[in-house]
Design goal:
By secondary structure, the chain is an all-alpha fold. The chain is built from ten helices and no strands. Helix 5 (78-95) crosses helix 9. The longest helix has 24 residues, at 50-73. It is globular, with a radius of gyration of 21 Å. The termini are far apart.
């Protein structure tokens, strides 16, 4: 018998917990059904399929993550904001590996546009970078630089891939220092000015 109170949100929350335990790639409708003591078919009243469930987990995790980041960067600017942002990002990624993996999946852009959490993520991230005087297209390039650096570092750290005796935290701090320097001295795309034409 299906448990009372089963909803899409409750399923997504349970799937997020399961993702942290067994890995996001191992989350399945069957495993979730077993968790609630129901048949697989009972879940289809609340989620369309596995992709729908995983998308819900991604949006849930994205909301949790940006809440942490927003709290960390509140009242900060410049390097202080960058450090707080980066540390909150890394903390979430390491504490919730399954949820974090979900945030890396590609989500339909229509769903992203409808998600308050995703809009807030863009607002906070771009707002932090505008404090460095960046405008488009440099803003997008800078976002990609930060995301690839943070994600790459967290992915390697989570698997114990950093084997050198240097403390991982020290290297992380230096990496953020380097990002701050890069953002503060971002190369500008200036149009090449042509010399004025002299009248014949």
């Amino acid at each position: 018998m299906a448990r009372a109170g089963l909803t899409a949100d409750r399923l997504a929350a349970a799937a997020a917990e399961l993702a942290d335990e067994v890995g996001f790639e191992n989350v399945s409708l069957s495993a979730l059904a077993r968790h609630f003591g129901v048949k697989d078919a009972s879940l289809y009243s609340h989620v369309r399929n596995l992709q729908d469930l995983r998308t819900r987990v991604a949006l849930l995790a994205g909301g949790e993550m940006i809440d942490r980041i927003a709290a960390a960067v509140a009242g900060r600017a410049g390097k202080d904001a960058l450090v707080a942002f980066a540390d909150a990002y890394r903390e979430y990624a390491l504490q919730h590996p399954g949820r974090y993996a979900a945030t890396q999946m590609r989500v339909d852009q229509a769903l992203v546009a409808d998600s308050a959490a995703m809009r807030r993520t863009a607002e906070i991230t771009y707002g932090m970078l505008r404090a460095y005087g960046l405008e488009e297209p440099d803003l997008t390039d800078a976002v990609r630089l930060l995301r690839s650096t943070f994600h790459g570092y967290c992915a390697l750290e989570s698997t114990g891939a950093f084997g050198a005796p240097r403390a991982v935290q020290e290297s992380w701090a230096r990496a953020i220092d380097a990002l701050h320097v890069a953002l503060a001295h971002w190369p500008r795309n200036e149009q090449v000015r042509q010399p004025p034409q002299l009248s014949p």
